[in-house]
């Protein structure tokens, strides 16, 4: 059971969980983001273990690269020195914690009973090529739609970020 | 006899006809009523004579089906029923005739006759019933007829109260009857008298159950026949027109209780406890009502208490296994008591008061009514050669043979009382000085006197159908073919007859001394308290209104508080709860998406946990 | 071939998802809330990829879906941040509990 | 001959009346009243025709109609009836009698509506809609249709009470709506659970499926679940019936609504509760229902006594009648609680009988109110002097109500107690006190109104008018008919009863 793969999994998973827990427990926003980068990267490792090399690459590119950077910009552009938690919301935290715990327990109950036999698969062979074939044949329409979505998001973000400037400009 | 069912239909026709078209006929509606009751009478007589020569006839059809059980309705002509038919239709016809004169000038004359028709119909139906259910059916209808007639003068508050009281008091008894009847039904599987008797005789019913049902049914009889402790309605019922008192509250309906016990006699004889209960209640009622009758001043009330007392007598007879004695007295009593009431009505008609203190010396003025009243008085007092003598003698013998010396003693004392207060009544009304204010006193029209004469004749001679001297025809006939009813005539010691005679004569003599000759003080009771107690009828009414009525009212008010405060309070509480919940919910609406989603998520988590724990499906 | 059972990956995904959920529901800084949501999306992606390998019929579709999810997530992050900037300009705060415009 | 259109026509004919009414200007009082009355007639005639059709020995199934209506999900390809809601109307003995009763009382209530003083047009339109709802409730063959009609009755009632009632009409209307709305909500839950679990809402099919686990295509319904559903049904219909302590809304409605509406309300709408309990409670969950026998019997006795004792101290005649309705519905429960033929038959008889009697009494209330402007007992008295016929009928109605033999009240009361005495003699013995109390409070109230000293201002009042004779005579005749010859009711009920008894295993 203690195959090399398993050890690798345990290590990566540990890093991911620790990153998550740090996200929750650190008080400095910047530190939180850094902790999260660890998680994102280890998730990429998990993808590798799951024979999804291309996804792992994309994960690092998008999450560890793009999104984290955007978020860091977001933090820095806004007031981030305020790290104190809102007073009086501890009851809510506790309730949410209980809820999350229950939720996790139920799902774990489901996962625990799950017994998926491993099938022969060829995912690890020419993974990127397989993805490319699927994307450009079977999923070509969603793929194109995604590009539309990204374009919309791009324009939308610009509009949202700019519009008030103009308004403020008008006001002034 | 096959067409005996038609007998009750004549009065029913009279009822419906007069109800619908009575207004047009005014006082001639009396002829409609008289004609139709006369038809009933003739037919009843035919049935009676036919019954002498042929066996019991019974015919039934299905009335209602409940599952496998079929409830039947029909009619039965046996000895008792045939006899009762004649008694009822006869008295009813006579009262119809009498009322033509008595109710003259009454605005609601047709209504009165319609009610009389309804009552007669119900009573005739009652005595023809072959099963308990049908008996109950008519039993209640009779009660309604009585109720309507008591409340005939509806604008009088007393009449209203009396009618209500009569209905409710008898209703209490009826519920007993209903329960007893239903319990018996589930034991026997039928309401038929025959089936019940057969089951009882075969020992299919547990002894305890027999006693229970018998006593419950007897409670029905107690209510209807004004036995202690449900007797108070009967004297109050005298608020009704006097002919009604004669018909319903003397001769027929109140005797229905006795009839019921007689009709179910085999059931009662199967339980000694039940019989003893009947005898004891009867004896208590007899002495108790008689003692109240000693001091009453209202002519009709004296007669009413005497009725109660006599009914107690009949119950005593039945309770002592004296079937014949009870039925015999029922018959003679129907005649002489109806006579007395009609005569009293005639007196009231003449002097327009019911208070005997205000009467006196009427003998000379009412040359017909006076002697007739005397005949009735002699008969009820048990003076030899009159009908009451023979029937009372039978009862005393039955009580003696029944082995209850104390009950026998009570019966003798009650007989003494009866003779005393009846002659007190007679002397106070007819002898002595005539009051100056009574000038326009005149005899009643012949329409009223004729029925009385018929009844007087019967009051004298009806006793001779069952005497120790001229044969016990009635008794033998009544029990013919039915051993469960006991012997036709019980030979009792001869001294009982002598005792009865002596007692009644003594009562008359004492009464004469006090009220006739006035040689004894009228304050014969001496102690005022005793007089007061008797005059106020042992405060039974007061006792009831202090206890039962008060408790019922109190309980009702208590429930009303519960309803208005507790039940409504719960409703208000629920409303308040919902409102609070709403306010809480409103507070939750902070406008923060995070809070909303937190709440939503917690809800989801709770649901998931519940589903996981219960396995998804309840 | 692999010694790691599917449930291990799923469990990891579950833990990450729960962490993300907790963060999204309790953190006060809006940026962190957004980030937490990204973490939840990631957890879902892990599931997708896991089932792509361990499903009844292993195929590439799961991975393709994960890719789609990522691109949508990227777009979402961009738009979310843009909204955040717009709000920040008006309110001078990124605290989520001060965003209660829905209340009135 | 295809008779399947008859029921549709019967149920929806009043709608035609509504359409006609819509074109009549609101000022033409006489025309509106006439049209309103006429619109109830075809239904009455049709239901009589159905009754005679039945009497002629033909099957009631001739009238069943079924049209495909709504299909949920894609199950239609597997089985056309699976998760489908049909438009199905049909009658059995019991529902036929209820339809007949409804159409009779609706026509008579339309006659009684002559006492309405304003907004005739709106009144009659709502009135007719209410009639459609009531007829539909009894004719519906499946739960969803039943529920739709059930709700249709609520809305017109709300407005009829709230607009044409007396002083506290709004409060009465709201408490009516809230209680009944909650009741329907609970009912809806039951219906939906059954529908989701079995894929059908047809009552007969449901009765089969629920009780035969092997026929259940999906997860079986556990016994606990059945109990829960039955209990929910009890609450839903208990509000309607009403069962203590869910009764307070009904008092307000009785007192505040216009008497013609109370005739319908007390005569028919309350009966929907009993109808539902018998049809669904007993029909679908017989085994569970059986175990509730004692509970029902005790609830019945409580209802009976509670209503009776409270009626005894009321000051308003309408309140007396309201509590008397509670008391009489106790008898229905007693009969149901007995769980034997006598009891259930008694309960159904009581449903019909009380419908007739309370309609009669409330009609007379409206007659008296129109002439005296009061229903307070202390202000009334000696009415018999001025209007002897109406007073006589009031007395007769009271007699019928307190269970006088020869009238319908007796038969039902007798059978209910007959049934209960077999099963639970002690409970029944306690309940028997109610018979006495009924006499006590009814006589107190009725004699208080009719007997006694006549109030001076009541001397000049007129007795029953010609129009007013119609309802009084009709109702009285029916009451006496059932009382004297109960087989007119028991014969049609026979098949229904047999089916119920079969379900109860007795």
TrEMBL record, chain A:
It catalyses: a quinone + NADH + 5 H(+)(in) = a quinol + NAD(+) + 4 H(+)(out). Keywords: Cell membrane, Membrane, NAD, Quinone, Transmembrane, Transmembrane helix. Its main location: membrane. Pfam families: Oxidored_q3. The chain crosses the membrane at residues 6-26, 33-50, 56-78, 90-111, 139-161. It is found in: Cell membrane. PANTHER family: NADH-UBIQUINONE OXIDOREDUCTASE CHAIN 6 (PTHR33269). This is NADH-quinone oxidoreductase subunit J. It comes from Pseudoneobacillus rhizosphaerae. The lineage of its organism: Bacteria, Bacillati, Bacillota, Bacilli, Bacillales. The gene is nuoJ.
TrEMBL record, chain B:
Residues 63-113 form the NADH-Ubiquinone oxidoreductase (complex I) chain 5 N-terminal domain. It comes from the Bacteria. InterPro entries: NADHpl_OxRdtase_5_subgr, ND/Mrp_TM, NU5C-like, Proton_antipo_N. Keywords: Membrane, Transmembrane, Transmembrane helix. GO terms for biological process: ATP synthesis coupled electron transport; electron transport coupled proton transport. One of its GO terms (molecular function) is NADH dehydrogenase (ubiquinone) activity. It is a multi-pass membrane protein. The chain crosses the membrane at residues 6-22, 29-49, 80-99, 111-130, 136-155, 167-189, 195-223, 244-268, 274-295, 302-324, 330-351, 372-391, 406-427, 447-465, 494-515, 558-578, 598-617. Residues 129-418 form the NADH:quinone oxidoreductase/Mrp antiporter transmembrane domain. It is found in: Cell membrane; Membrane. The keyword Lyase does not apply. Pfam families: Proton_antipo_M, Proton_antipo_N. GO terms for cellular component: plasma membrane. Belongs to the CPA3 antiporters (TC 2.A.63) subunit A family. This is NADH-quinone oxidoreductase subunit L. The lineage of its organism: Bacteria, Bacillati, Bacillota, Bacilli, Bacillales. The gene is nuoL.
UniProtKB/TrEMBL annotation, chain C:
InterPro entries: NADH_UbQ_OxRdtase_chain4L/K, NUOK/Mnh_C1-like. Coiled coil: none annotated. It holds the Pfam family Oxidored_q2. Keywords: Cell membrane, Membrane, NAD, Quinone, Translocase, Transmembrane, Transmembrane helix, Transport. One of its GO terms (biological process) is ATP synthesis coupled electron transport. The keyword DNA-binding does not apply. It catalyses: a quinone + NADH + 5 H(+)(in) = a quinol + NAD(+) + 4 H(+)(out). It comes from the Bacteria. Its EC number is 7.1.1.-. Its main location: membrane. The chain crosses the membrane at residues 6-25, 32-52, 64-88. GO terms for molecular function: NADH dehydrogenase (quinone) (non-electrogenic) activity; quinone binding. It is an enzyme of class 7 (translocase). GO terms for cellular component: NADH dehydrogenase complex; plasma membrane. The keyword Cell membrane applies. It is found in: Cell membrane; Membrane. It is a multi-pass membrane protein. NDH-1 shuttles electrons from NADH, via FMN and iron-sulfur (Fe-S) centers, to quinones in the respiratory chain. The immediate electron acceptor for the enzyme in this species is believed to be a menaquinone. Couples the redox reaction to proton translocation (for every two electrons transferred, four hydrogen ions are translocated across the cytoplasmic membrane), and thus conserves the redox energy in a proton gradient. NDH-1 is composed of 14 different subunits. Subunits NuoA, H, J, K, L, M, N constitute the membrane sector of the complex. Belongs to the complex I subunit 4L family. This is NADH-quinone oxidoreductase subunit K. It comes from Pseudoneobacillus rhizosphaerae. The gene is nuoK.
From TrEMBL, chain D:
It is found in: Cell membrane; Membrane. It comes from the Bacteria. One of its GO terms (molecular function) is NADH dehydrogenase activity. The gene is ndhD1. The keyword Repeat does not apply. Residues 140-435 form the NADH:quinone oxidoreductase/Mrp antiporter transmembrane domain. The chain crosses the membrane at residues 6-24, 36-56, 94-116, 123-140, 146-164, 176-196, 227-249, 261-280, 292-313, 320-339, 351-369, 389-406, 426-447, 467-488. It is a multi-pass membrane protein. This is NAD(P)H-quinone oxidoreductase chain 4 1.
